[in-house]
Amino acid sequence: MRLMPVKKVSASFSAVARNAFFTLAILQIVFICSSLPARAAEPKLESGKNVIVVKDYKWASAGMGRPGIMKEITLQNKGKSDFHNIDIEVDFYTRNDIPLGSMRATIRDVLPAGTEKTFYNLNFGIMSAELQNSVARVANADIIEKGTPTQAKDLILVKNWEWSGGQYGTEGILKQITLVNKSSENWKDIKIRVDYLGIAGPKVGVRGFTSRAVIHDVLPAKSEKTFYNINMGFRHPDAKTEDISVMSAKPISEKEVKIKTAKKEGKKAVRKKKKKTAPADGTAPTTEEAAGTGSSSDDKSLSLSERYKRKLAEEQGIAPPEESPAPEVAAGEPGSAPATGETAEETASSEEEETTTAEEEETGDEEYEYEEEVPIPAEDIVVENFKWGGGVTGTIGMIDEITLRNISTITYTRIELIIEFYSFGSEAPMYSNRAVINEVLPGDSKKTFRKIKAGYLNAIPQEVRIDIVTAVPFSQR
Fold first, then answer.
1. What whole-number distance in Å separates Cα of residue 252 and Cα of residue 187?
2. Which end is more exposed in the chain, N or C (fewer Cβ atoms within 10 Å of the end residue's Cβ)?
C-alpha cells in the first residue's frame, strides 16, 4: 500500500512532461504561422496581362487573305507600374462561337501606370478566315522599372518647347526646347520623341505616328539648358497637339563636358596643372611657349592638311609649328611637313630620343579646366605632324612618320587613325582608310612613329588628313 503514492508521483511527472511537449509543439506551429503573413507581404512584380484591360477596339481592315489591321484599341492600366511591349492576342470565332484561330501583335509604346490610352493602326498580319466575332486581350507586357540613376528618361524633364513656324503636315523644326536635368549625372546625345495626338476627349492617344531626334549636345548635372533648331521631321497632318518626352541619353564624364562645351564656345579646355615657377637663371621660354599665341598671316597659302593641323592645334590649345616649306619634301606633296630647323620636332624624330615629355601648357588664360582623367582618346591624342610616304594607285600607301602628342596622363596603345584623301582644293574626301599603331604612347609625352601602312590606295591624293579615332588605355590592353 505504501507504493501507491510513488505511482501517483510518477504519473503526475509523466503528465507534466507530455503537457510541456505539446506546449512546445504548439508554440513552434504558432511561430511558423506568424511568419507566413510577412512572407506574403513581400512586394511582387505586377503582371501586365492581369492589370491591363482592353476597354474597346475597332477594325480598319480584316477578312480572309487581307491584312488584319486594328484601327484603334483602348487600354487601361489599373496597376502601379509602367508597361511597354504590350502583346495583344485576338481570338476569332464564327457567329456560332466556333473557334477560327488567333493572331498576335505587339504595341511597342509605353502605357503608364493608372492611365487609359488609345493606340492606332495595329497590324496583325494576313488573316486566314473571315472576320465574324473577335475577342481581344492582353497576353503579356514588359514592366518598366523606375528610379534607377542610369535611366535618363526619369531624370531629364522637358520643361517647354516652341515650334519654328509651319503647321501640321509640314516639316517640324523645334525652334527651341528646354530640358531640366534633375540628376547629378552629365548627359549627351539626348534622344527625344514627339507623340502626335489626335481626337480630343477621353481617348486621346498616339495617332500611329511618332518622330524622334537626337540632340547632339551636352546637358550638365543639376542644370537647365535650352537647345535650338532641332529637326523632328514631318509633322503629322491629323494631329491637333503633341507631347514631347526624353527617351534616352548617354552619361559622360566631367572632362568630356568641359571639352565639348569649350569647343562649342570657341574656347580651350586643358587639364588642371600646377603652375610652374620661373627658373632662377632666367632661362628663355621654349619655342612652343613663345609661339603659343602666334598666327601666320598667310593661312591661305597653306595646303589643306597644313591648315587642318593649325586649326586642330588651336582647338587643343597647342601652339602650331612654324609654317615654312620642308627642304626634303616638295611643296604641295600630301602631308608635307613644315621645316622647323633645330627644334624639338627633329629631336623627337631621331631614334635615340623618340619620346619626349610634353611641355606643360600655360593655364592662366584658359576658361575651362578639368581635373579628372578619364580616357577620351580622340581628345587626349593630337596629331602634331606627319610625312606622307606616297604610293601609286593599286598599292599600299605609307605614312613615313607621324608625331602624336598625348596631352593626358593616360598611357595609350592600339591607336586607330583615320586617313582621309583629298583631291586638290576639295573640301570633301575622295575616300578614307584606317590604320592602327600598336606601339605605346605614354601620358604627357610626344612620340614619333614610322612606316605606318595606310591601306590600299584607290587614287593618288593631293592632300592627306589624319585624325584619331580611338585608342586603348595601356592598363586595359
1. 6
2. N
What backbone torsions phi and psi does residue 181 show, to the nearest 5 degrees? -95, 110
Question: What Å distances lie between residue 309 and 400, 431, 466, CA to CA?
Answer: 17, 19, 9
| pLDDT surpasses 60 at 205 | no
C-alpha cell at 71: 484601327
Place of cell 475597332: 58
Please indicate, yes or no, whether residues 218 and 161 belong to a single structural domain of this protein: yes
Q: What is the pLDDT of residues 380-427, one digit of tens each?
A: 899 999 999 877 888 899 999 999 999 888 899 999 999 998 887 777
CB 63, CB 130: distance < 8 Å: yes
CATH number of the domain bearing residue 241: 2.60.40
Whether the per-residue pLDDT at 447 is higher than 70: the answer is yes
- For 274-277, the CB contacts below 8 A with 24+ separation are 275/363, 276/360
C-beta pairs of 10-15 under 8 Å, 24+ apart in sequence: none
For all residues of the chain together, what is the average pLDDT?
74
Other Cβ atoms within 10 Å of 471 Cβ, number: 25
Domain carrying residue 86: 48-144
The long-range contacts involving 450-453, CB below 8 angstroms and separated by at least 24 positions, are: 450/400, 450/401, 451/389, 451/398, 451/399, 451/400, 451/401, 452/398, 452/399, 452/402, 452/417, 453/396, 453/397, 453/398, 453/399
pLDDT at 419: 92
Ranges 225-239, 364-378, 433-447: which has the least confidence: 364-378
Give CA separation, 177 vs 126, 215, 258, 260, in Å: 42, 10, 22, 20
Residue 272 included in any domain: no
How far apart CA 382 and CA 369 sit, in angstroms, is 18
Distance from C-alpha of 313 to C-alpha of 307, rounded to nearest angstrom: 10
